[in-house]
Design brief:
This protein starts with a helix and ends in a 9-residue tail after the last helix. It has ten helices and two strands, in the order αααααααααββα. The chain has about 375 residues and is mainly α.
């Protein structure tokens, strides 16, 4: 689940993602060596030999420290990746809005712009800071463990490796449902935000016409609908996590039973059996962690669709640079409609110079505000020049 356009807009995020994967892999290598030392010490103690105990304890402490450093550096790169994508996306959105000008409200609501710029971008913070690095690491970790355990007992290593893809298969199974559900979630979220902002801005008018109680009930209905959609998303996420846990624990159990059987038949030593037992879960933990990030990533994908919709808005070719201290405005045959059968201006012509004061006077609904909106750049879809 990688979107090419999103990667292109990521800026320096991908550099930090690669570094994060490297530190995660180094942490895994430290853990493998740690397990080998621990298993060796247990096997030696079982045989009554204690000669390597102090050397093993020292190596154990060194590797624990190394793993802690790797975790710390990985976390740092995750933060930097998140910071870079948020900065880059918000700059792109800001520049787009500047190019469109104040007429952006004709194409997209202010509430949706706020939601996309704030929460939408925050969702992609997790996508780059957690999901993408975990995706690459979860592919790398099982292969590394398989190559290591092959030298101990290839049958157990192969069984563990074969069971790992069952987790992404279960993820793919819920992906179609999740994509549709999250798209509905974001649509309802934007709709609720639009209603809230519109009612808040028009609160005085609603009170004057005693329509506030009606809008109150209407918003309650929308909020309840959004709550139901949210609960469906959470239920879907919880069910898929349960399935992934069953697959992960079941796969580890099969690998452990194979190792125990091999030890019982003398195919592996106590040392080898302990190594497989202690590393079996590590085959599945990265992919299991990826599964927990998957739903957040799906939410990020749904949010990115909203962001690209904003970035793809058509820009007004008639926009010019700001006027200076001296200016003249000439309008020729200006016409503007708010929809079919709702024409506000019809072939209006005018000339405005800097000298003196120019005022547009007319009855309510004659088009004064529309003309002011065109001059200020708030309205763009007009005819004429």
């Amino acid at each position: 689940m990688i979107k090419k356009r999103l990667i292109e807009l990521s800026g320096d995020s991908m550099i930090h993602v690669k570094k994060q994967v490297l530190f995660q892999w180094l942490g895994l290598c430290s853990n493998i060596i740690l397990i080998f030392i621990l298993s060796f010490l247990f096997a030696e103690l079982a045989e009554g030999r204690t000669g390597f105990l102090w050397a093993g304890a020292f190596a154990f402490l060194v590797l624990i420290g190394t793993r802690m450093v790797c975790i710390r550096l990985s976390s740092r790169e995750s933060t930097l990746a998140s910071k870079a994508i948020k900065k880059n996306l918000r700059e792109n959105i800001y520049r787009k809005l500047l190019r469109i000008g104040s007429s952006y409200t004709e194409k997209i609501s202010t509430a949706e712009v706020v939601q996309v710029t704030v929460e939408g971008v925050d969702q992609l913070e997790t996508y780059f800071g957690a999901y993408l690095p975990q995706l690459f690491y979860s592919l790398l970790a099982p292969v590394t463990l398989f190559l290591v355990l092959c030298f101990i007992h290839w049958k157990s290593a192969l069984i563990l490796l074969i069971c790992v893809p069952l987790i992404p298969i279960s993820i793919v199974a819920v992906q179609k449902i999740a994509k549709k559900m999250l798209s509905k979630y974001w649509g309802q979220y934007a709709k609720l935000g639009d209603s809230f902002l519109e009612n808040l801005q028009g609160l005085t008018t609603l009170k004057i016409y005693q329509a506030d109680e009606y809008k109150h009930r209407e918003m309650n209905q929308e909020a309840e609908h959004f709550r139901r959609v949210t609960m469906k998303v959470l239920t879907m996420q919880l069910n898929s996590i349960i399935v992934m846990d069953i697959v992960a624990l079941g796969g580890a159990a099969v690998g452990i039973m194979t190792a125990l059987s091999a030890y019982q038949h003398g195919e592996v030593t106590l040392f080898g059996m302990l190594v497989i037992l202690l590393l079996a879960a590590d085959f599945f933990l990265p992919m299991r962690q990826l599964g927990s990030y998957f739903h957040i990533a799906m939410n990020g994908m749904a949010a990115s669709d909203k962001i690209f919709r904003l970035l793809d808005l058509k820009e007004d070719k008639k926009r010019k640079e700001s006027v200076g201290d001296t200016f003249e405005f000439t309008g020729k045959n200006i016409s503007y409609s708010y929809g079919e059968g709702k024409q506000a201006l019809h072939e209006v012509s005018f000339h405005i110079s800097q000298q003196g004061l120019t005022a547009f006077v007319g009855m309510s609904g004659s088009g004064k505000s529309t003309l002011a909106g065109i001059l200020s750049g708030r309205l763009s879809g007009y005819e004429g020049s």
